[in-house]
């Protein structure tokens, strides 16, 4: 399997961005964690970050036929983007929704996710450790390659 990990706006600032909420781990650290987990699971990984909604939609379209599934931390677009939701429905790619923080325990505007109804499932609240958890979850969802 080949898996895309797509990170949205402001996640490039992890490490310095509100460490009390998101922890001290940088996005490069997270990428390294994911690479180690992917090697253990025997899957290929593409790791991306964009601050632009349209670029994220383009990445989902481009993932069709290339990646077996997607781990998506859409950042604040989670709570606003009908366009990202539609991109997931349109591509029919299996998506695991991921957040470092527990969005349900935070401000009310973070409780609503446009991704959740079109995702296989959601992992949130485990900080950087959620990424390898999401890889485990997606690979087990995908099952053995044909
Ligand atoms: C986030 C949660 C979102 O509410 C927030 O806008 C982010 C990060 C998380 O990983 O906890 O940018 O997706």
UniProtKB/TrEMBL annotation:
<feature type="binding site">
    <location>
        <position position="110"/>
    </location>
    <ligand>
        <name>substrate</name>
    </ligand>
</feature>
<feature type="active site" description="Proton acceptor">
    <location>
        <position position="22"/>
    </location>
</feature>
<keyword id="KW-0057">Aromatic amino acid biosynthesis</keyword>
<dbReference type="InterPro" id="IPR018509">
    <property type="entry name" value="DHquinase_II_CS"/>
</dbReference>
<dbReference type="GO" id="GO:0003855">
    <property type="term" value="F:3-dehydroquinate dehydratase activity"/>
</dbReference>
<dbReference type="InterPro" id="IPR036441">
    <property type="entry name" value="DHquinase_II_sf"/>
</dbReference>
<comment type="pathway">
    <text>Metabolic intermediate biosynthesis; chorismate biosynthesis; chorismate from D-erythrose 4-phosphate and phosphoenolpyruvate: step 3/7.</text>
</comment>
<keyword id="KW-0456">Lyase</keyword>
<protein>
    <recommendedName>
        <fullName>3-dehydroquinate dehydratase</fullName>
        <ecNumber>4.2.1.10</ecNumber>
    </recommendedName>
</protein>
<feature type="site" description="Transition state stabilizer">
    <location>
        <position position="17"/>
    </location>
</feature>
<feature type="binding site">
    <location>
        <begin position="100"/>
        <end position="101"/>
    </location>
    <ligand>
        <name>substrate</name>
    </ligand>
</feature>
<feature type="active site" description="Proton donor">
    <location>
        <position position="99"/>
    </location>
</feature>
<comment type="function">
    <text>Catalyzes a trans-dehydration via an enolate intermediate.</text>
</comment>
<feature type="binding site">
    <location>
        <position position="86"/>
    </location>
    <ligand>
        <name>substrate</name>
    </ligand>
</feature>
<feature type="binding site">
    <location>
        <position position="79"/>
    </location>
    <ligand>
        <name>substrate</name>
    </ligand>
</feature>
<comment type="similarity">
    <text>Belongs to the type-II 3-dehydroquinase family.</text>
</comment>
<feature type="binding site">
    <location>
        <position position="73"/>
    </location>
    <ligand>
        <name>substrate</name>
    </ligand>
</feature>
<keyword id="KW-0028">Amino-acid biosynthesis</keyword>
<dbReference type="Pfam" id="PF01220">
    <property type="entry name" value="DHquinase_II"/>
</dbReference>
<comment type="subunit">
    <text>Homododecamer.</text>
</comment>
<dbReference type="InterPro" id="IPR001874">
    <property type="entry name" value="DHquinase_II"/>
</dbReference>
């Amino acid at each position: 399997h080949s898996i895309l990990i797509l990170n949205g706006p402001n996640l490039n600032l992890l490490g310095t961005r509100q460490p009390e909420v998101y922890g001290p781990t940088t996005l490069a650290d997270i990428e390294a964690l994911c690479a180690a987990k992917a090697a253990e699971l025997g899957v290929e990984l593409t790791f991306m970050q964009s601050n632009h909604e349209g670029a994220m939609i383009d990445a989902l379209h481009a993932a069709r036929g290339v990646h077996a599934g997607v781990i998506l931390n859409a950042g604040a677009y989670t709570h606003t983007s009908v366009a990202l939701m539609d991109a997931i429905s349109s591509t029919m790619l299996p998506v695991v929704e991921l957040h470092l923080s527990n969005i349900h325990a935070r401000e009310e505007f973070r409780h609503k996710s446009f991704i959740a109804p079109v995702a296989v499932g959601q992992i949130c609240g485990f900080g950087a450790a959620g990424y390898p958890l999401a890889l485990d979850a997606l690979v087990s969802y995908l099952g053995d390659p044909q």
